[in-house]
Specification:
By secondary structure, the protein is mainly α. It has seven helices and no strands. The model has no long low-confidence stretch (mean pLDDT 95).
Length: 138
Protein backbone atom coordinates (compact mmCIF):
# COMPACT_ATOMS: atom_id res chain seq x y z
CA UNK A 1 0.00 0.00 0.00
CA UNK A 2 1.22 3.47 -0.81
CA UNK A 3 1.56 6.35 1.60
CA UNK A 4 -1.05 9.05 1.91
CA UNK A 5 1.44 11.50 0.37
CA UNK A 6 1.99 9.25 -2.65
CA UNK A 7 -1.76 8.79 -3.05
CA UNK A 8 -2.24 12.57 -3.01
CA UNK A 9 0.61 13.01 -5.49
CA UNK A 10 -1.03 10.59 -7.92
CA UNK A 11 -4.38 12.36 -7.56
CA UNK A 12 -2.67 15.67 -8.31
CA UNK A 13 -1.04 14.10 -11.37
CA UNK A 14 -4.50 13.01 -12.56
CA UNK A 15 -5.78 16.56 -12.06
CA UNK A 16 -2.82 17.96 -14.01
CA UNK A 17 -3.42 15.50 -16.85
CA UNK A 18 -7.08 16.56 -16.91
CA UNK A 19 -5.99 20.19 -17.29
CA UNK A 20 -3.61 19.14 -20.08
CA UNK A 21 -6.44 17.30 -21.86
CA UNK A 22 -8.47 20.51 -21.86
CA UNK A 23 -5.54 22.35 -23.47
CA UNK A 24 -4.43 19.57 -25.84
CA UNK A 25 -7.47 17.38 -26.59
CA UNK A 26 -5.78 15.72 -29.59
CA UNK A 27 -2.57 14.75 -27.81
CA UNK A 28 -2.71 11.01 -27.18
CA UNK A 29 0.02 11.15 -24.54
CA UNK A 30 -2.01 13.24 -22.08
CA UNK A 31 -4.81 10.64 -22.17
CA UNK A 32 -2.25 7.86 -21.83
CA UNK A 33 -0.55 9.57 -18.87
CA UNK A 34 -3.84 10.01 -17.03
CA UNK A 35 -4.89 6.44 -17.80
CA UNK A 36 -1.52 5.14 -16.65
CA UNK A 37 -1.82 7.10 -13.42
CA UNK A 38 -5.29 5.63 -12.81
CA UNK A 39 -3.73 2.22 -13.51
CA UNK A 40 -0.90 2.97 -11.04
CA UNK A 41 -3.52 3.64 -8.35
CA UNK A 42 -5.31 0.41 -9.22
CA UNK A 43 -2.03 -1.48 -9.00
CA UNK A 44 -1.53 -0.10 -5.50
CA UNK A 45 -4.83 -1.64 -4.39
CA UNK A 46 -7.34 1.02 -5.39
CA UNK A 47 -8.95 -1.28 -7.96
CA UNK A 48 -11.87 1.01 -8.71
CA UNK A 49 -9.46 3.19 -10.70
CA UNK A 50 -9.10 0.52 -13.41
CA UNK A 51 -12.55 1.51 -14.63
CA UNK A 52 -11.36 5.13 -14.90
CA UNK A 53 -8.25 4.11 -16.82
CA UNK A 54 -10.00 2.27 -19.65
CA UNK A 55 -11.67 5.30 -21.34
CA UNK A 56 -8.34 7.12 -21.34
CA UNK A 57 -6.63 4.17 -23.00
CA UNK A 58 -9.55 3.99 -25.47
CA UNK A 59 -8.95 7.63 -26.40
CA UNK A 60 -5.19 7.09 -26.62
CA UNK A 61 -5.76 4.24 -29.07
CA UNK A 62 -8.29 6.27 -31.04
CA UNK A 63 -5.70 9.04 -31.46
CA UNK A 64 -2.72 6.72 -32.01
CA UNK A 65 -3.74 3.15 -32.88
CA UNK A 66 -0.10 2.03 -33.00
CA UNK A 67 0.80 2.99 -29.44
CA UNK A 68 1.60 -0.39 -27.91
CA UNK A 69 1.67 0.75 -24.28
CA UNK A 70 -2.01 1.76 -24.39
CA UNK A 71 -3.00 -1.76 -25.41
CA UNK A 72 -0.82 -3.26 -22.70
CA UNK A 73 -2.21 -1.12 -19.89
CA UNK A 74 -5.81 -1.32 -21.08
CA UNK A 75 -5.34 -5.09 -21.18
CA UNK A 76 -4.01 -5.03 -17.61
CA UNK A 77 -7.04 -3.02 -16.51
CA UNK A 78 -9.41 -5.45 -18.22
CA UNK A 79 -7.55 -8.35 -16.62
CA UNK A 80 -7.82 -6.86 -13.15
CA UNK A 81 -11.55 -6.36 -13.73
CA UNK A 82 -11.91 -10.04 -14.69
CA UNK A 83 -12.54 -9.25 -18.37
CA UNK A 84 -9.95 -11.71 -19.60
CA UNK A 85 -11.20 -12.11 -23.18
CA UNK A 86 -10.98 -8.35 -23.71
CA UNK A 87 -7.55 -8.32 -22.07
CA UNK A 88 -6.32 -11.05 -24.42
CA UNK A 89 -7.50 -9.07 -27.46
CA UNK A 90 -5.47 -6.09 -26.26
CA UNK A 91 -2.44 -8.23 -25.53
CA UNK A 92 -2.76 -9.81 -29.00
CA UNK A 93 -2.69 -6.35 -30.57
CA UNK A 94 0.29 -5.32 -28.44
CA UNK A 95 2.16 -8.45 -29.58
CA UNK A 96 1.27 -7.68 -33.19
CA UNK A 97 2.78 -4.21 -32.76
CA UNK A 98 5.79 -5.33 -30.72
CA UNK A 99 6.37 -9.10 -30.79
CA UNK A 100 9.51 -8.92 -28.63
CA UNK A 101 7.95 -7.40 -25.51
CA UNK A 102 8.20 -10.12 -22.87
CA UNK A 103 5.77 -8.29 -20.54
CA UNK A 104 2.86 -8.81 -22.89
CA UNK A 105 3.33 -12.56 -23.18
CA UNK A 106 3.42 -12.82 -19.39
CA UNK A 107 0.25 -10.78 -19.02
CA UNK A 108 -1.55 -12.69 -21.75
CA UNK A 109 -0.41 -15.95 -20.20
CA UNK A 110 -1.97 -14.99 -16.88
CA UNK A 111 -5.23 -14.06 -18.63
CA UNK A 112 -5.34 -17.42 -20.42
CA UNK A 113 -4.59 -19.16 -17.13
CA UNK A 114 -7.48 -17.32 -15.43
CA UNK A 115 -9.77 -18.49 -18.25
CA UNK A 116 -8.75 -22.08 -17.52
CA UNK A 117 -6.56 -22.34 -20.62
CA UNK A 118 -3.55 -23.35 -18.56
CA UNK A 119 -1.48 -24.90 -21.35
CA UNK A 120 -1.79 -21.80 -23.49
CA UNK A 121 -1.07 -19.64 -20.46
CA UNK A 122 2.10 -21.55 -19.65
CA UNK A 123 3.22 -21.34 -23.29
CA UNK A 124 2.96 -17.55 -23.14
CA UNK A 125 4.74 -17.40 -19.79
CA UNK A 126 7.51 -19.57 -21.23
CA UNK A 127 7.81 -17.25 -24.24
CA UNK A 128 7.96 -14.30 -21.85
CA UNK A 129 10.91 -15.86 -20.03
CA UNK A 130 12.73 -16.64 -23.27
CA UNK A 131 12.28 -13.10 -24.57
CA UNK A 132 13.32 -11.60 -21.26
CA UNK A 133 16.61 -13.48 -21.21
CA UNK A 134 17.17 -12.95 -24.93
CA UNK A 135 16.96 -9.16 -24.61
CA UNK A 136 18.05 -8.65 -21.01
CA UNK A 137 21.00 -11.01 -20.68
CA UNK A 138 23.51 -8.66 -19.05
Amino acid sequence: MISHEEFERLLEKIAECTRQIELYPNDYMVYYNRGKTFRDLAYEGFHEYDENAIPDFDKTIELNPNYTEAYIYRGLSYSCLGQYERAIKDFDKAIELNPNDYRVYDSRGHAYYKLGQKKRGFQDMDMSSKLYFMYNDN
